[in-house]
Each structure stands twice: as C-alpha cells, then as structure tokens.
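Example 3.2
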Amino acid sequence: MNQLTRIVRPLRGGQITIPVEFRQALGIDQHILLQMTLDGDELRIRPVKVAGVETGADWLYDLYLLFAPARQQAAAYTDEEVNADIDAVLADIRERPHASSRS
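Structure, written as tokens:
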C-alpha cells in the first residue's frame, strides 16, 4: 500500500477531518468505530468493525405487544388516580410484618 500523508487543521473543538481518500481506503463510514492510540508523540487511528450489533430483542417486542391491552386501559386513568393506587399499595405493604420478623 502506498503511504499517504496529509496535513489537517483541528477545528475549534479539537475535531479533525479524516481525508476522504483515507476513509475510502480504510472503509470508514458512519457505522465504523475508531480506535485511537497515543504512542509517544504519535496518534494512531484505526477502524474497528463490530460484528453482530442487534437493535433489539424479539422477546422484548413480544412482551411489549402482550401488554398492549393494559396500556390501552391505563390511558383511561389520570396520573392522580394511578399515584393514589400506588400509594395505597405501598401503605398496605408497609403495614405488613416483615418476613425477617416472622418465626
């Protein structure tokens, strides 16, 4: 591979632009992560390819769909009603004897 050298100026925030011919040669696009290494007075940057990045889990979506009727019913309640029910349940739980105090 031929050695390429370019001079670039850092932007005000310290950002630098990787020249297009470098990005093309290394296959760098918006989906590639870059590993940066400071070695003495040299900064080395190399692309890192991440395999198998998943955006979600099927089981989680299935669970979301399972609770769709409950979400629709919950829309009929006001925040005050929901908070009052939560407060009532918490008060009931706090009144119960703790498991550690049982014989």
